[in-house]
Amino acid sequence: MRLPAEIRNNIWQLVLGGRSIEVRDYGRCSTCCAAHEDLDRALNIKAGNRQQIMQDHPLHVDCFVLHKPAKIGLTLSLLLACRQIHQEAALLPFATNNFVFQSYSALRIFLRRLVTGQARQIASISILLDMITSLRKKRLNLSSHDPLRTLIQSKLTGLRQIVFVGIDYTSTFAISGRSDIGDEMVGLFRDLSIERAVVVVAFSDLTYRLMGTQKVQHKAGWGPLTAWEDNVERKLLGGVEEIEDDGR
Known about the structure:
Layout: H1 5-16, E1 20-23, E2 29-31, H2 38-46, H3 52-55, H4 61-64, H5 83-89, H6 92-95, E3 98-101, H7 104-113, H8 116-119, E4 124-130, H9 131-140, H10 146-155, E5 161-168, H11 172-175, H12 179-189, E6 196-203, H13 205-213, H14 218-236
Helix pairs in contact: 7-10, 12-14
């Protein structure tokens, strides 16, 4: 504890930060076992490799589905070493890690369990959604996320980066309506001071080939989808563009 505060803080960040923390629907958290970063993978998909997420390494499937343990886990026992370390580092796990959610339900449960001081330290989140399931739920209950918006607006005031990866197991989302999900996402997060937003849709191998047979691949198929992604990103960052539904 005789080290300068700056060096101590760097040590605490190395031990407690720099990881992806996956949050399941029932609120349990675990450290991601994959070596990839959600932001890097999302940018790769957005650059044109929309099929790679399924062919190479399905995003977080090893953790969420196969429950593989992380090679380097997050050890919080450091915070129990002494009172000074706890005072200096207790909020770093929230401020220096990326939190990954596979549903809005998981996000809602997680935020309810955090005290406001903890939640307001969170700076980066990733949201992974099955697009067709999300569309169906949205159509069934358009007001289902109102309590979640209140939680987000009151507790995620420190959020600066959001990565949204939608996985389309059919061609329905790519070819037809998208405005519901875009409106929903913007409504939940727009009023926050987000500095970086990446929104992408990835496809299974079957969907990718199906789109090819329907001659909506490449420019014809990706153009409207890419425009939708860019438009949602601008809205999340405070832009004024309208979220259009080119396929409806």
